[in-house]
Amino acid sequence: MKFPKLLNNISGLQLYQLMRFSTFLFISIIFTKIGLSRHDIGLFEVFMFIVSMMSFFWVNGLIQSFLPLYHSNYTYNVSGEHGDEKSPEIFNAFLLLTFFSVLAFIFGLLIKYHFSIFHIRGDVPFINLLLVYLLINNPPILIEYIYLLKNKPEMILRYGMLTYAIQLGIVTIPVIMGNPIIWAIYGLLVVAVIRFIWLIIILLKYTQIKISFPFLREHIKLGAPLILSSLLSGSAQYIDGVIVTSKFDAATFAIFRYGAKELPLTLMLANGLSNAMLPEFGKKFKFRENLAILRHKSMRLMNVLFPLSIVIMLFSRWLYPRLFNPYFIRSADIFMIYLLLIIPRLLFPQTILIGLKKTRVVMMASVIEIVFNVLLSLYLVQFYGTVGIALATVIVFVLEKAILMSYLYFSMGISPATYTPIKSYLAYSVLIVIIFVLIDHRIINLV
After folding, report:
1. What stretches of 64-187 adopt beta strand conformation (E)?
2. For the chain, which residues make up each domain, given as ranges?
3. Is the pTM of this model over 0.85?
């Protein structure tokens, strides 16, 4: 299969991320359309929620710290382009991901009978399958980034199209045929095994099998603040989920989870752009050029994603009961709030700071964010229920980006205008907030 010439590392990674979230969205839609009970849907969502909660922070931290190190590290005196030679850096990054996966597996074994869901201690759905999935599912996340670093965007796309097509079929078809929800979990495990085998194959092709303790130390030193930052910053959605499970039942959790979804295009394209630019900011001789590229790429995203988010917001209350089923109309209000996360998502100060290896600054901003997130969530849930929890998430995400942009400006002399189209960004942000308020107060009602 041939791909368009416009395909590059950034667009390839963005499309891959979009395929990932679209696949899980289609799985959610199929489960509701075939009449699967809200309890079973809740069990599947809790399974995915716990797996992600136990791994997202160290996976993100290790990947984000590895990308700039690939082009600039002291262990192998690398500075600039790598060429086509086999890389010991990639192999050692794989070792770290595997090591943390084993630690997470062991930790899960130790606490599996001391963890409660929906007020029932030790009642974690499919706990043994969950731990196996946790062990083998995370190292293959390195695959798309190996292709990124080797400048093979077409392979990112092929890999994503094949594996996510398999996942969509193998997770949903058994349940459609009337089998219990555990068969969907079996499907996830089969796909994880396929991805792990794929990873081993490309490691043999692209890496030098050599353990380097100096590089591992360098990677951990740079990655530790990012792991903590990801734990704190990314914990917003997991704190939301924990609060919901502590106060409500499985059906309410399913409603919240179906609403607590950002527009997949926004999340995936923003994260794809950010991660694809990290290796570039590792090349310090191209710093100003990369700022201009980041500004241009973010402008293109704004011109597409803000109008799309506004249109989807207008039709959310009409869309949800038709996309899922009438019971999930309550999810629409939460979803509309999560659409506002486009405002902080399309700001990229963290990309610059991580690329420049200023990871401690990112960590400190996350500490501030998590404190405010806990306090706001616990406060607002008393008055607005699950909607208040979602609103707190938006507020603290905006706060975190404001802190990072302030640091770049006041401490490093990097103006927001050099990497953000300020006028367009502010105009779009004000517009989407106004639309949200009008819909929330039923001044605009398209239902």
Report:
1. 72-73, 78-79, 116-117, 120-121
2. 9-440
3. no
